[in-house]
Amino acid sequence: MKLKSDVNDNDLLRLMLAGDEEALAALYRRRQGSVYRFALQMSGSRSIAEDVTQEVFLFLMREGHVFDDSKGTVGAFLLGVARVHVRRRLRAEHRLEPIGDDSEDDDLFMQSTTDVCPLEDLTRAETIESVRKAVLSLPPKYREVVVLCELQDVSYGETAEILGCAIGTVRSRLHRGRALLLAKLRPAEDVEETSSASVKSARCFA
Amino acid sequence: MNCQRFETVVSELARGQMMAVGQKTEALAHSDVCDDCAARLSDEQMLTLGLQSLASEMESLEAPREIEGKLLEAFRARTVVVPITKRQSHSRYWLAAIAAMLLIAISVVVFRWSNRQGDEPREAIKQEQPQPAVNNKSNEQLAQDVERPSVDDSLPQPSKPKRIHPVTLRRPNNASVANHATKEIATDFIPLSYMSAASLQQEGGQIIRVQLPRSALANFGLPVNMDRYNEKVKADVLYGVDGMARAIRFVQ
Questions:
Q1: Which residues of B touch A36 (CB under 8 A)?
Q2: Most buried residue among A145, B17, B23, B224 by CB atoms closer than 10 A?
Q3: What is the CATH number of domain A4-92?
């Protein structure tokens, strides 16, 4: 008999939907980590991440038949479901900040073009904590791209499937998200030099 | 490459993403000569390192074990529930089938009952209807009636109406269709006493148009349309000079 660990996700899902408990256990053990981490990185809350992980797999038990393997992988499908649940939870807890206009993001983007290396002096632990906080402070549409592409190491194509958008949109959101992160990670004194930095970059672009 | 072009590829460059060799070389060459772009690339590389550190820090994080237990418990509960719902759905099918059969049975009973209701007035009318011609029937005709039980009134009438073709008077043995000049079709006069047809014409008398119950046709050996059983049929009665009915013919 073939071990469940050797079976691919699609077959495990099919077996699970047919009532195979071992298939569910195998699929859960294989995919729970990425779902849990995604929810945690998006929300910053362990309780939300736990709830979301549970809800995602409960959804899979109930509605797993809606998965279409021609549209993507089971992993991407689960992350897509997790994304919906995370957003719902964050919205319910008023943790989502309103998404600003692109013009505001452009200002922050321009601030990031400095000649100072902001992370050089930070220790590794400080860096990690700073980056974590900076990621959590990103607007959701940039946060989910940064989490997926940078922290979950999901490809642009799969990210586009999860978010239901074009690959080009993923690229541009990631670019802007990184710029926002850099702006947030910059030391406070550098923020005061925003205007001069803008002038510099403008001169440079010319 | 200029700074603007460099900006579009700096993230990919810092993340070590695949890009065209020429483009990468040009970007790196530009960062060598442009301090701002070099700093920009350095920022991006530091950010990449920070994100990678965060990712590796969180890589070992997993959902608590109890979630798996809860899910498996929910899965077992669901699989236990499924057969129950299946049984319920089967019993629903059975109930629906029984209900359908009952409905059919009731509709058949109602249909038959309504047919009987329709037949009862017919029979009542039949009993009430006077049969003027019968009174004058000859013994010979009565004997003929006995020999034709299929059209006798005493026999039970079929409950289900049969499809009836357009009524055409079937000729009696020696009757012939006459009176073609008008639109009416009539049988020949059928004598009601011991007189020949020829003598009837010679004797003269008076013809009176009457309406008789259709069942009277049966008394003369003519077919009766059961669908129109309750309807009247026209007849011409030939009365002699003494006022006695001599003959009768049916008109359609």
A1: 61-63
A2: A145
A3: 1.10.1740.10
Q: Give the pLDDT confidence of A29-76 residue by residue, as tens digits.
A: 999 999 999 999 999 889 999 999 999 999 998 888 889 888 889 999
Burial class (CB within 10 angstroms; exposed 0-12, middle 13-18, buried 19+) of B109: exposed
**Total H helices, total E strands in chain A:** 11, 0
Residue ranges of the domains in chain A? 4-92, 102-205
In A, which residues are within 8 Å of B49 by CB distance? 119, 127
Q: Which CATH number fits domain A102-205: 1.10.10.10, 2.40.170.20, 3.20.20.140, 3.40.50.11540?
A: 1.10.10.10
Q: What angle do CA A95, A100, A105 make, to 5 degrees?
A: 120
User: Among candidates B203, B199, B160, B187, which has minimal Cα distance to B252?
Assistant: B187
HSE (CB half, 13 Å, CA atoms) of A22?
6
What is the phi/psi pair of residue B125, to 5°?
-65, -40
- pLDDT higher than 50, residue A170: yes
Substitution target in B40, B54, B59, B60 with the highest count of A β-carbons within 10 Å is: B54
**Interface ipTM > 0.90:** no
CB-based contact, A45 to chain B, within 8 Å: no
| Candidates A57, A131, A185; nearest CB to B71 | A57
User: What would the pLDDT profile of B124-171 be if each residue is shown by its tens digit?
Assistant: 545 544 444 444 444 445 445 444 444 444 444 444 444 544 444 444
CA distance A116 to chain B (A): 7
**Alpha-carbon dihedral sign for residues B37, B43, B48, B51:** negative
Which residues on B lie below 8 Å from A196 (Cβ)?
Answer: none
Size of interface A-B (CB pairs under 8 A): 126
> Chain B: nearest CA to A48, how far in angstroms?
11
Q: Chain-centre distance of CA A178, in angstroms?
A: 12
Looking at chain A, which residue has its C-alpha nearest residue B83? A19
